[in-house]
Amino acid sequence: MSLKDPEIMMQLKMIELTDEEIRIAKYFQPIIREHSEEIVDSFYKSVLEVEKLKQLIQEHSTIERLKKTLELHLIEIFSGQFDAQFLEKRTQVAMIHFRIGLDPKWYLSAFQNLLNASLGVVLRRVEDREESMRISTVVTKLFNFEQQLVLDAYEKETLYQREIEYQKKENLVKQIIGTSTNLAELTLETSSSVKELIATSNEVNTKVQRSAEKTRDTQRIAAEGELRIAKLESSIESMDTSTSEMSDVVSRLNESATHIREVINIVNEIAGQTNLLALNSAIEAARAGEHGRGFAVVSSEVRKLSDQTKQSVEQIQKLVDQTSKYSSEVASAILSVQQLVKNGLAESQVTREAFTEIMDSMNMNIAEVGQVEQEIKELVYVIEEIGQATQKVAASSEALNDSAKSI
């Protein structure tokens, strides 16, 4: 033995495994090697009868591979060489058992079968009873020491993994406490922000409602404007009709003035002929002397009447000319008014179309404002739900924090 670990040496001393017994074990190594396949087959026959162990083998390795490994391991037990390498291999066996999840009870049960099979092979070569007892003791001590090494390494690894899990748990608890604390602080901030957001959204909702009311007022005003435009358009159309009638009246007045001129020309001709007739009558009356005196008086009166008629006709002519002038001015003014009326009618139609577009736009705007108003209300409702959920999260984080601290 080349072991220096005081604890290992104490274990060997406790089971009273001496150097002499180790040399005896080495003496039987060739027998173990010779019958290793038989021992291993017997071992795995009992192992495979346990379904759980069979599944572990199928998940992590193969029977043939494990048999070869176990044969080498068995031969090493009887090598008579206890050194650091020997201990390291036992530690590796323990690590493999731990990694695949083999419970210690199954290891002990299986190892007992391995011990029984090995003793059976060795004792077949020994006939003396006392010698058999001594050999059995040596082999049992060897397998006991093997179990001690493996189970000790297994336990140390288990404790190590538990320590790691405990440390992970401690770290997780600290992380949970830190996270829950941060979460609580964050939820408080979030709750405050949500309250501000609720207040802001309510204010926005109020403004949207006011905007909707103003939009509806504007729509009413626009509708009234559209009615007024319609009335104005109707009035302009009436003016257009009236000016057209006035234009017709002026046209007829011009026609009458033309007829009056024709009549004046006729009267002028008659007055001229009457004056000529009166002159001729006066001449004839002068020739008749005393007998034509009465006729001369009549001729003089006719001449005066002709002159008066001529003067009256001239005045009528002046009046007709002045009336024609006024009629022309009136006709020109009517044409201007008609043009203005037509322009006003065109402008009123454009304005009416503009008001129609404004009304359409206002209707669409009101619909959109109504939709926005509804969406704002829904948003306020959602924000309030978020606020309630935030409060629940805050309560849950505080409960989580308390639970984590109590672990």
- Residue share in helix: over 70%
Say what oligomer this is.
Answer: single chain
Proportion of strand residues: under 5%
Mean pLDDT: 77
Distance between the termini: 48 Å
* Inertia-based shape: rod-shaped
Can you tell me the residue ranges where pLDDT is under 50 for at least 5 consecutive residues? none
Instruction: Tell me about the largest β-sheet.
Output: none
Number of helices, where a helix is a run of at least 4 consecutive DSSP H or I residues: 10
Order of H and E elements = HHHHHHHHHH
Q: Kindly provide the radius of gyration, computed on alpha-carbon positions and rounded to a whole number of angstroms.
A: 68 Å
Number of strands: 0
Structural class: mainly alpha
Protein name: Globin-coupled sensor protein
Family: Belongs to the methyl-accepting chemotaxis (MCP) protein family.
InterPro entries: Chemotax_Me-accpt_rcpt, Globin-like_sf, Globin-sensor_dom, Globin/Proto, MCPsignal_dom, Protoglobin_sensor_dom
Keywords: Transducer
How would you portray this structure in words?
Belongs to the methyl-accepting chemotaxis (MCP) protein family. Keywords: Transducer. Pfam families: MCPsignal, Protoglobin. Residues 173-407 form the Methyl-accepting transducer domain. It is a single chain. The chain is 92% helix and 0% strand. By secondary structure, the protein is an all-alpha fold. Helix 9 packs antiparallel against helix 10. The protein is rod-shaped and about 225 Å long. The mean pLDDT is 77.
Quick description:
With 407 residues, the chain is an all-alpha fold.
